[in-house]
Structures are given as structure tokens and as C-alpha cells.
Amino acid sequence: MTAYEPVIGIEVHVELSTDSKMFCGCAVTFGEQPNTSICPVCLGLPGALPVPNRKAIEWITEIGLALDCEVSERSVFHRKNYFYADLPKNYQISQYDIPVCHDGHLDVTVDGFTRRIGIERAHMEEDTGKSTHLGDGGRIHSAQSTLLDFNRSGVPLVEIVSKPDIQSAAEARAYAHELRALVAELGVSDARLEEGSIRFDANVSVRPEGNDELGTKIEIKNMNSFRSLERAIDFEIRRQIQVLEAGGELLQETRHWDEGTDVTHSMRTKEGSSDYRYFTEPDLAPMVMDRAWVDEIAARIPELPAQRRARYIAAGLDASLAGVLSDSEPLLRSVFDEALAAGASPKGAANWLTGEVTAHMRRNEDSELSLTGAQLAELIALVEEGTVSSSAAKEVLEGVLTGEGDPAAVAESRDLIQISDTSALEAVVDEVLADNPDAVQSYAAGEKKAVGFLVGQVMTKTQGKADPRIVNALLGARLDR
Amino acid sequence: MSFLTDLNIVEAGELLRSGEVTAVGLLEAVFDRAHKTEAQLHAFLTLDYGGARAAAEAADDHLAAGIDQGPLQGIPVALKDNMCTRGVETTAASQILAGYQPPYDATVVTRLRDAGAVIVGKTNLDEFAMGSSTENSGYGTSFNPWDISRVPGGSSGGSAAAVAIGSAFTALGSDTGGSIRQPASLSGIVGLKPTYGTVSRYGLIAFASSLDQIGPLSKTVTDAALTLETIWGHDPLDATSYAGPYPDPASGLDLGVSGMKVGVVTELSGEGYEPEVEAAVARMIDQLAKAGAEIVELSLPTFEIALSAYYLIAPAECSANLARFDGIRYGHRAEGATTEALMARTRAEGFGPEVTRRILLGTYALSAGYYDAFYGQAQRVRAAIQEDFARAYESVDVLVSPTSPTVAFKAGDRVDDPLAMYLSDICTIPSNLSGHPAMSVPIGVDAQGLPIGFQVMAPALGESTMFRVAAEVERLAAFAAKPQLAEVVS
Known about the structure:
Chain A is of the alpha+beta class. Chain A is 39% helix and 20% strand. Classes of the chains: A alpha+beta, B alpha/beta. Chains A and B meet through loops of A and helix 9 and helix 10 of B.
């Protein structure tokens, strides 16, 4: 049996969250009443002309630079011609041979192994309107009627095309995830999969391992989550291998991922899909990218997720915790940085922030946080030096978060300071031993677990304030005597 | 007896400001002329009595209040029906847009309204401006006031006929391959295509975006300059709009041509050119020489292949520009069991044969495997034409030629011979491909009394120079003939 290797490329469409659309002044909206953010331009009325949105060009440049792309000095819009009811002009203004950005890369980590995925290009285009097919499953073939909403028509869309460098479904998922994180970091898109503001298509082929020739490329569409992207690619790889193993031939086609049944099936081929008759958009002059402007954009690119993770790992976090913290709210990440500056241990700070603090914010549906890095560092120090127990520390945090003051003050006022005074605890320990002869006997008889019960008794008597390490030591010393 | 409709814009403006006539009076004269001639000419697709009347009254009010909005204030203007007018039917002479009322005004319309002009109506054209006779209109042919068995030229034939007969003082047309200059020539009036990008295309129903340009059709060179000054200028709604600075077209009208270098394009003569047209043009060139111009014969070899390049580029662009007419959002809609069937049937029913021919031609020219041989090659020819022009303008100030190889032809003569029809624009097309300004000025009539036009071409933004020469041509020609139909209705 032949061993096959998959060759995968991903096309990502990112809707930019500019105030206005790509070629007109209409507001970019989501979830508004249908056909309320429209004008002659984005409706393709006779005589209307496109005028490019400078902000969108700025943002695609920013995306390109963040992907280490080259920015074309001169970039050209093309018309991509095909007939479709939700494409008002029946051509899409897109780019063809000279995209705004080209030849970049994105590093992707799967199971601790990092690979560099090439970026072929990032080009600027406009989104289509939205069709809602009514009746029988919502597919166009069987629909009784179709509703058209042009609010989305003309929303700036960046298409990012990877090189066919991706080697597995898991890597495809990681690539998509990383790209989404990057775009979200730049703040140029809502980047919400569920709202369709970021969409993924995959080109999948398989070939016998070691073969340099590419197999027949199948495009798959309609993956609405990272999970479905991975599953669809997995399915497609298996399907293609099966067809080839059975001596069959693959046809170059577009297939649709069906989330319900977990299979891809062949889509009707879009009219003229093989020939979009691209030609230069005569309504738009070529864009000449001013070098100084590009440099200005480059200078304000923030720390990207990969850089941030690397920084966290260098600070001492493991990859997994670094990833979770990196994906967390910006607010939490800035508290983390402050806490480190205030001397907190990175791991402690990260655990608190991604654990208790995040849980608190979710519980209270808070978007604000009344916790400073210095307070977090103080809290961690209180635990480390034994002033409060780790369980009491959660209560201290609660107090800090609800504005009761700094951790030490909260521990004091809530009476949560741990009893670490050995002489004070000795008395309690002796009392507990005297009160519980059965447990002492069991222990002596070899039931080492009995010590746990005794510790619990000491904690109860001290309202949980006893330092469990000291209690353990004292009990051990007495019982083993 | 003289008629208000015989006045030019300058004369009418003086009478308006002296109070001897009112804008409403001018409008009534124009409508009266239209009523008497429309049955024969069919220059208009829509006459907007209500809107025009209101605009004329407003112009009179402003004049009475001492508000001067400029030379077009109170002047009746006609618009080619491929320019969008808010709430007034705009069809581009296509059945596919029957009944379509745009929700917005084209920029040129806004500029005319802001200047106090009175828009009388929308004129006939070849469907989507594709043609040279108006015979491709989806609503019937327009006819030439000089001989109503003949066409007024096209595609802006309705505008040309309306101005020639006096149903408007000035008009706007659009020129993609000669669609202003050729009908102006065949109808005995002045017409010009300004430098590409100087008049906003926003609201002009596109034929071929890289070639389309709006311009005036007027009775005199001065009227054309006044109309142009009103409509041109930078428009942020058109990304191909020229930011400035703009020349002053009227600055050289009185300067004459002494010392100027005038190039005669040798390629624009010979076979296919009517002898009387060539003779009239030659006479004018002699007159220009006598007036002090230095005449230089020049060869621009790429002009020979301009027509072929044009008939790839224009159809290619139109194939995309006209894709939006699909019956989904506006205009004519045919029934269909599927969306594709609805679109296909709508387009089959809505477009006339010439439009269909060009869409097919353009679609083919852009197809994979043919693109480079057709569209790519045509773009290279276009670049070569631009280089040819640039070389010519190193040695001359303007280039001259006939505007049309023939005078107005009989309706029906070229309908079944698209190539013969396409040749009507052989002299005008190069300036569209180069984006340069060019202008037609009437210089006389042939033995049948049909007007002959003289074309003046200039480099980009060379409108001042072009108008300077055109004004001298107008003086030298002393063209005073009147259309036959004007005599009849007088």
C-alpha cells in the first residue's frame, strides 16, 4: 500500500472593521436590519463609481507587514467577473497579479514543533451581499426563494493565501488559529468566526510520499469553526486517499463541508468559476504606496501573539500557560507585566490571572478589573511567605477585586492571616491529640491516613488559619515520637 | 424673423440679465421648438416639463434677487439619457432600464443644477452609447435636422439634434470613441471630448470606463467653453478624476493661431473619406496657414490600428460594466425558474443586438487563453498610440483632421454592416485611447447641404490651446447655415 502525504493551502478572508465600506461611505455593520447600510455604489446602481477606503489599504498593509510580507510599491485592482445574485455588479473588485502584499510567512506550532508556513499574498477586495435561501435546507438548489441583504456588500475584505506548505489538518487548524490571533491583535477585524468576519477555505491534495508532483487540488468551503476546518481537511485527506487507492481519479472541484454529517460533498460549480476574466479595474488608478507611509504603519505594529508567547516562555512559563495567557484579555496581560515588574513569580502571576481572576471576571461579567500588578505581586508574596494560605488567598483576592484594599490589608480585615507561630499551634495540636485518642491509635497501628483527619481538626479549631505545613510537621513530630 | 432658440448662451445670458427675457421664456421657446420638431427628430426620450419649469422659475427668482450663478443660469440644457437624474427616468436608451428612476444625480447634473441651468430633458442615444447613428436605441432612431432621412450621428445623436434644432441651448453627451464629436460634426454644431478625468463620470452609466468622457455639444465654441467650465473639475466621487490645476478653456479664444504649429495627420485621409469632406478640411487648413499657423504634415502610424484596439478594449470593459443589468435589483426582469435563467432571459430580452454583440466580443477577448492575444495586445497598441501622440506633440501644438470621414448618412444605410458603422469613428477614436482632448467645429456644408466637421486635437490638459484653434476655425469658417428643419418650423 502506498503512503500518501497531504498538501494543504489555506485561503483566509478577513472582513476589516473599518468605519465605512471599501469603496463607498456606507457604515460597516453587523446584525442590522437588512438593506439599511447601502448606497448606489455598494448596490451596483448604474453610474456609481468606487473610491477606495484609505484606512482599509492601511490595515491590509499592517496585516501584510505583520506577516513579514513585501509591500508592493505599486498595486493594482482588477475586476473578477462572475454572475451571482448577491454580487451587485456581477464582478468583484479584487486584485490579481499585483496584490498589496506578497511573500511573507507565519510560524505555526503543533505539539511543540514549530514550522514556517509561507504566505503567498494578501490582497484587497470587497465582500459580497448575503443570500438567504428559503425552503428545504437552505441550499440554493432546492430553495423556493432567496432573500438578498446588501449590508455586507462592499465591506473591505482581505484575502490571505498561504503557500501549499501545510502538511496536516492539525497544522491547518493551528495556522488558522494563529492567523486569527494575529488579526485580532492588530485590531483590524472583529475576527469572529461565528459572525463570518473571518472565513477559511482549504485547498487539499494528496500525493504519494516523496513524490514532488502535486495531486489534484480540491477546494473545501463552509468550515465555520477551527474544529470543522480540521475535521473537514481530515475527512478530505481520507476521502482522496480512498479514491486513489480504489484506482479512481480525482476531479478538480469545490466541495462543501457539511457540519451535520461530517462529510464534504461536491458543490455545483459556480458559473465561469474556471475563468473569471480578470482585467484591470478601469475605475481605479493603480495605488502607489508611499514608502514613508508604509514605514509609519510598520512602526505601530504591536507585539504579535507569537512574539508575546516567546517572551512569556523566556520569562519562565511553559508553552501551554504562555499560550493561554497570550490569548487572554489585554487587561490581564498588562496586569501580568506589571506584576512581574513588581517582583512576582511569572508562573504564579500567570496562574492567578488565567485561573481565579479570569473566573471572577466571567462570574461577574466584568470587563474592568480593579487589580494592579503590584497587588497581585503582593498577594503572591503573602502566599509564598506563608502569611496567608493558598485557599485563604482566594478570599483575599475576592476582597481586593471588590475594592476592599490591598492584599495585606484585606487579609487583616477579613482575618485570614495564617497562624505560623509554632508555639501557638503546639497548644492546639496537643489539644486535638488529646481529644482524638482513636485517631492516634489508628495512626500508631499503621493507618497513616489518620494524620489527615487530625490536620483537619487543627484547621477547624483555628478556623482554617493554621499553616498546614507547620501543623503537619508538629503532628508528625508528636505521633512518630 | 429671429427666434429665442437661435440665440447662443452668451446672447441669451445678456438678455436674461437685462431683463428682456426670462428663463421661463427661454424654456417655453425651447419646449415650443421641441413640440414642433420632435415628431420628425425624436431627439428626446424624456422631456421634463415640471422639473424644467421649476428650475427656470428658480433661475428667474435668483436673477431677480441679483444672485448670479454664472453663464448657464436660466439656460435650457439637454442631457444624454445615460446620465443619472434623480427621480427622472434614465434608460441609456436600453429596454433593460425601461422605467428606471435613479435615486441620485450624476455629478455633472448636480453641477448644472448648482449653476442654475434648466435641464429640459433626456436625449436619445445608441443603447448604452454603443453606436454612431442612434439607430441602436431601444426606443427608436433620432433623425438629423439637416435632412430627416438621415441620422444625426451617435451615440450622442439626440443631444446633437436637440442643440442643432434649438430644442436646447447646449447639451451634454458622452464620448467613448467619438460619440460627442461625430454627431456634432454630422449635425453642424460644436462638440468636444475634454481630457480624460476632467469631467466626473460619477452617475454616467458606464460603457467603457477607461474611455468614457462627458463633454458639451453646443452651438458655438464659446458656448462649449462655458458649458465645459460649468461641469468639469475634481470630484472625490470619481477615483479617476483629475485633481487640478485646470486650464482656462476660454483664455485664448481671441488670440488667433499666428505662430502656432498645426499638425495634419496623414493617416486620417484617403480611402473611405468623402472628397467633399477632404476638400473642406483642406480649405480650412489653408485658411489656418493664411491666418499665420505653421502647417506640418505628420504621420501617426498607430492611428491605422487604433480602431481594432478600440474594438477590443471598449467591448471588454463593457462586458463587465453591463454585467450588473441582471434583473435582480432594478430595471427589466424576465421570469426564470432559477436565478441563472432569470438573469439570462432578462439580458436576452433587455439588450439590443449591438450591445449583445459587444458584450460577447468583450467576454471573448477577456477569456482565458485569449486575453493576451486580444485584450493584452490592444493595451499595447493603446500605449503605442499614446507614444505616437507624445512624439507628435513634441513638434506641433495641435493636430487636425476631419471629425468624420463622411457627412450624415441615410438612416438604415449602415445598420446591417457593423464594420461600416465602426469606421464612422476612425478619426475620433485615437483621442479616446490617448485620453487627450479633441473637438469638432462645423466648417461648411457639402453640395447636399449637409454639415462637415473639423477636428482639433490637443495634448492632455491642452484645452486652452484646443479652444484657441477651434475659435479661429469657427471665425474662419463663418459657418452660418441653418438646418433644413429649422427653416421649415420658422
